[in-house]
């Protein structure tokens, strides 16, 4: 194979791998950010559960102090009731007592509701904390993985960069500038020619061009897409098997040979 062609094929492989690795390296920080965002959601869930518990406690304390206050009022009303002069005054005080008792009863109901809610809130906190713990471990693992991967990619990239420099210095100037131009425009600069076609743009090649490409001894570019073409004999379809005879032809051939076969013993 023409050495320029061989080197350009290798160069394109290196360039493609360099592009892939560069994309991968660029994508890794985004992946880590996405993982960390998930962790932030878990942290928010824990904070939310904690603040629900806190407001539950504040609510209960407020109700408890309401109850105390109402109980003190009841004591005060009862004390006052022993010194009232009229029935009306007495009834009015008893009415206040009843009202305070209803307040106490209502507050006690609410406290019970909050206690029930607290159980669910504590359960939610536990779940959120477990989830966050698991996620933190996962995130650390993924981050370590990402860092290792990046380091490996960067090492490979450096090696490929060196290989690329060597290959480029080995290719003639005009072939190289053609390669660079097509690479810039089409993101690939080399294509296989198979079955007299460019396998990148599928345009049919002229018979003479096809013959020349098959030698792999020239730098020939596709007249349609500009990619440099090479030929791989391993990918050439096998030659078509000879056509089978039709049934009629086969029968004809058989009937022609039969008498000869029968005639053979008669010759003795
Ligand atoms: Zn083409």
Give the helix/strand layout.
Blueprint: H1 3-81, H2 87-170, H3 173-186, E1 190-194, E2 197-198, H4 207-215, E3 220-221, E4 228-231, H5 247-266
Parallel strand pairs: 1-4
Antiparallel strand pairs: 1-2, 3-4
Helix pairs in contact: 1-2
The structure holds zinc ion.
Residues 191, 198, 200-201, 203, 222, 224-225, 227 line the site of zinc ion (ZN).
Describe this structure in words.
Strands 2-1-4-3 form a four-stranded mixed sheet. The two termini are 64 Å apart. With 268 residues, it is mainly α. A hairpin with a 2-residue loop joins strand 1 and strand 2. The C terminus is likely disordered. It is built from five helices and four strands. Helix 1 packs antiparallel against helix 2. It is rod-shaped, with a radius of gyration of 45 Å. The structure holds zinc ion. The site of zinc ion (ZN) has 9 residues, from loops.
Features:
four-stranded mixed β-sheet, 268 residues, binds zinc ion, mainly alpha
Biggest sheet statistics = 4 strands, mixed
- Structural class, from helix and strand content? mainly alpha
Query: DSSP strand (E) fraction?
Result: under 5%
The succession of helices and strands, N to C, reads HHHEEHEEH
Helix content: over 70%
Biggest sheet strand order reads 2-1-4-3
Distance between the termini: 64 Å
Number of strands: 4
Look at the structure and give the mean pLDDT. Answer: 90
Radius of gyration: 45 Å
List the total number of helices. 5
Spans of at least 5 consecutive residues whose pLDDT stays below 50 are 258-268
Cofactors, ions, other ligands? zinc ion
The best one-word shape is rod-shaped
């Amino acid at each position: 194979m023409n050495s320029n062609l061989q080197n350009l094929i290798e160069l394109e492989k290196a360039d493609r791998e360099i592009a892939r690795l560069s994309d991968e390296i660029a994508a890794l920080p985004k992946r880590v950010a996405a993982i960390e965002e998930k962790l932030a959601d878990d942290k928010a869930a824990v904070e939310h559960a904690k603040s629900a518990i806190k407001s539950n406690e504040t609510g209960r304390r407020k109700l408890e102090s309401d109850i105390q206050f109402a109980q003190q009022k009841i004591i005060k009303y009862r004390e006052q009731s022993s010194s009232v002069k009229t029935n009306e005054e007495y009834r009015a005080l008893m009415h206040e007592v009843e009202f305070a008792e209803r307040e106490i009863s209502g507050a006690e109901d609410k406290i019970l509701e909050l206690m029930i809610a607290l159980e669910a809130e504590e359960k939610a906190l536990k779940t959120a904390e477990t989830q966050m713990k698991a996620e933190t471990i996962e995130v650390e693992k993924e981050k370590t993985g990402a860092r290792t991967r990046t380091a490996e990619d960067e090492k490979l990239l450096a090696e490929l960069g060196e290989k690329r420099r060597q290959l480029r210095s080995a290719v003639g100037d005009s072939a190289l500038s053609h390669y660079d131009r097509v690479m810039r425009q089409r993101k690939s600069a080399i294509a296989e020619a198979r079955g007299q076609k460019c396998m990148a743009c599928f345009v049919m090649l002229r018979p003479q061009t096809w013959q020349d490409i098959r030698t792999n001894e020239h730098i020939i570019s596709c007249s349609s897409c500009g990619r440099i073409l090479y030929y791989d004999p391993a990918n050439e379809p096998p030659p078509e098997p000879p056509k089978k005879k039709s049934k009629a032809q086969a029968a004809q051939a058989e009937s022609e040979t039969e008498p000869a076969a029968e005639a053979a013993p008669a010759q003795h």
